[in-house]
Amino acid sequence: MGLADLYTSRTPLYFGGVEAEPDRADMLVVGVPYDATSSYRPGSRFAPRAIREAAANIELYSLRAGIDLEDYRIADLGDIALPVNPQEVVKRIETVVAELLENNPGKLLALLGGEHSITLGAYRALARHDTNPCILVADAHFDLRSEYMEEKYSHASVMRRITEVYGGERIFYIGVRAFAKEELEYARSKQIEYITSHTARLLGVREIVNRASRWMKKAGCQSLYVSIDMDAYDPAYAPGVANPEPEGLEPWMLLDTVFRIVAESSVSLRVVDVVEVSPPYDCSGVTSVLAAKTLLEVFAAYLIQRAKGAR
């Protein structure tokens, strides 16, 4: 029995409505029910269950990939049991994710957030396991504040903590549109690449994918982490998020973009997370459904990539 077994608890719901044995699975799913630093609309600690329920009630065929995910095995490992202190939460997530990556080589690990601060622990774990992992972030916000409400491990500071240790050249944003001037200045000073939601529409999917490909080559990425904050979508499509911002991306555009970046890349996708769904604010559960759909399309892209033999 490892630490991952000690710190995870099984749930009555399974992602996609089916259960597979971890050692036979193609993808692993873990819930991270945490929102202690949420600054506007808390409730993302309830998101793992809501996303699981949504995934069990939508179709699993990907038109983009021509793949039926029912033909593959998804193992839902349950939720990570977390303390309250933000710094200890990061350590706990790092411990669990590091062990899961070590014990399950070649499998994609998906995290169901939870707020965006969970990404720090998971990225640290990947950096321990792989050389030079890069992170593709879909988000309305930079999350580059030095601290927020006197908390350095806040959801508003998560990418600042990553940048400080691993460098800004490893980060590529899609959909940013809401930030403080200091965050923008910091992003530029650290040579962080980003495409705002406004610029994304002007460029189109193909050019965004090309720019992301050039970024991965320039940064020397050896593996890839994809982090999708659901507020990257416009709140017309994803109203149930912790910090909604107008002028976001349409689902087709973000899904097409992330799918193509992953499917066409030779850099292996290792971890994906979907964060910041807040079920108490989610009209008719549509945000949870979109979150589930987002993960399924990333799974499909990963399977295409794997079939191509990505390194």
UniProtKB/TrEMBL annotation:
<keyword id="KW-0479">Metal-binding</keyword>
<dbReference type="InterPro" id="IPR020855">
    <property type="entry name" value="Ureohydrolase_Mn_BS"/>
</dbReference>
<keyword id="KW-0378">Hydrolase</keyword>
<dbReference type="Pfam" id="PF00491">
    <property type="entry name" value="Arginase"/>
</dbReference>
<comment type="similarity">
    <text>Belongs to the arginase family. Agmatinase subfamily.</text>
</comment>
<dbReference type="InterPro" id="IPR005925">
    <property type="entry name" value="Agmatinase-rel"/>
</dbReference>
<dbReference type="InterPro" id="IPR023696">
    <property type="entry name" value="Ureohydrolase_dom_sf"/>
</dbReference>
<dbReference type="InterPro" id="IPR006035">
    <property type="entry name" value="Ureohydrolase"/>
</dbReference>
<protein>
    <submittedName>
        <fullName>Agmatinase</fullName>
    </submittedName>
</protein>
